[in-house]
Amino acid sequence: MTGRDRIVRELALRTLEAARVAGPDAVAPIVQAGHPVLRAVASPYDGQLGADELTALLALMDRTMRAAPGVGLAAPQIGLPLALAVVEDPGAGDEEVARVRERPVLAHRVLVNPAYSPVGDDRVGFYEGCLSVVGYQAVVARPRAVHLTGYDETGRALDEVLTGWPARIVQHETDHLNGTLYVDRALPRSLSATDAWGAHWGSEPVPHEAARALGFEIPQTARPGAREEPR
């Protein structure tokens, strides 16, 4: 084990001990933009933790994500520069929003050492927020589909194509593991305080009115909600 791996392990064990002392329902503090861990490239997970320790850490991340609430959480967001993330999305409550944003239910899953690459040239822009950038939302244009690789918590290889909102979540969380925040990719003029976003633009399936009022263009190369023909 390298010196960096030993440091990461010690940080993880301290985090787990703090949670153990706090009780079985404990959540971890979510670090905010400005913390250096959010700008560091996370260490690949390579067995720095024992099986029980990894299980406990992932359970802590799950509780923290759900309590926030959020649809994803990367280990750097709780102060650990380790390439682990958890994701889970109940989907959009509105049928039209779900269709346009291509936002189905995303079952809980763990991403270990994930990486993604765009599939095709289609890009779609929607508002995003982040548990580590509290109080703001901004439009991010991302590839509509990505090829996800990596592993799950059992060591099973991941090799699949994700489309729509699941692809967006995976991109957002994987970016965290490379020291990138969503605001780095956002359209600056779209930046909105969360209250203002909710009052003015939160109900828009696609932020067309926000773009007109705030003076930005959505670099859209795919029609949101368009259905591809089965192949």
Explain what this protein looks like in three dimensions.
- This protein has 231 residues and is an alpha+beta fold.
- 32% of the residues lie in helices and 23% in strands.
- The chain contains 7 helices and 8 strands; from the N terminus they run H-H-E-E-H-E-E-E-E-E-H-H-E-H-H.
- The chain has helices at 3-22, 51-67, 95-100, 165-176, 182-185, 194-200, 208-214, and strands spanning 72-74, 84-89, 106-118, 123-128, 136-143, 145-151, 157-163, 192-193.
- A 5-stranded antiparallel beta sheet has the order 1-2-3-6-7, sandwiched between helices. The protein has a 3-stranded antiparallel beta sheet with strand order 4-5-8.
- A hairpin with a 7-residue loop joins strand 4 and strand 5.
